[in-house]
Amino acid sequence: MFGKVKIILHRPIPDGFKIKTASITRKADGYYVTLSLADETVPEIKPDFNPESITGIDVGLKEFLTTAQNETVAIPQHYCKAQKRLKVIQKRVSRRKKGSNRRLKAIKQLGLQHKKVADKRRDFHFKIANNLLKKYDVIAYEDLNIKGLAKTHLAKSVHDAGWSSFLSILATKAEKAGSLTIAVSAYNTSQNCSKCGVKVPKELHERWHSCTCGCSLDRDHNAAINIMNKSVGHPDFKAKSLRSDSWIVLEAHALTS
Ligand SMILES: [Zn+2]
């Protein structure tokens, strides 16, 4: 209809974006072309993305994780066994004479066992991430990247279970699936009551949350609900529920000469 038109481009078209629509408006100082671009690398919102399909996950001492719906995932037995075997081989290495063939052999065994543990853990993490993403569109978790945690008993359990590598697998998979993971502050998630919000102090060994409001449930389940509830007010959650931020609008000023 217009043929070729010379334009003044106010902003360059970024790499990886595709032009979806173009509309022309006439303004006092000339014609404007507005282009809508879609970033093909950012997944569109799932057609069935449901902000109410949400859970929170709590990392525990006993379980690998507990969800806000009180589903628990245990640390698999075969994984524990592989870790025990790792310790046995580690001792073997330290017992044997430095430079000896027998020690070298044990070191080789140790390397293989390390790989075995890592592979099993990875498989386990993928499986759990897939199961969660099949069920939920939004998954909130505690941001455990805090200094205070480093010395606690929980820190060791978090480390042994490979919690941080699990979270990065979960985040990557969620992004591909068009789902959302949200890190929330860990502050008081295990202490506060998930029903009335009152603080109910408890030691680490106390496994049950029992509040005067009548709320009574497993400690980790209570924490998982708090984690889920915190994510609802999170800016990422609001953006995802409302947004269309894989689209940006670009204006190009058409030369009328
Ligand atoms: Zn309460």
In short:
39% of the residues lie in helices and 25% in strands.
Description:
The protein is α+β, with helices and mostly antiparallel strands. The protein has helices at 77-95, 101-135, 153-160, 163-177, 219-232, 235-242, and strands at 7-9, 17-27, 30-39, 54-58, 63-67, 72-74, 138-143, 180-185, 208-210, 216-218, 247-254. The chain is built from 6 helices and 11 strands. The longest helix has 35 residues, at 101-135. The protein binds zinc ion (ZN). The site of zinc ion has 7 residues, from loops.
The Rg value, from CA coordinates, equals 26 Å
Helix content: 25-40%
Uncertain regions spanning at least 5 consecutive residues: 243-257
SS-based structural class?
Answer: alpha+beta
How many E-type strands? Answer: 11
| CA-based shape | flat
Mean pLDDT comes to 81
- Taking strands numbered 1, 2, ... along the chain, how are they ordered across the largest sheet? 6-5-4-7-8
Distinct small molecules bound, one entry per kind: zinc ion
SSE sequence, one letter per element: EEEEEEHHEHHEEEHHE
Count of helical regions: 6
Termini Cα gap: 17 Å
Strand percentage lies at 15-25%
Question: Can you summarize the main beta sheet?
Answer: 5 strands, mixed
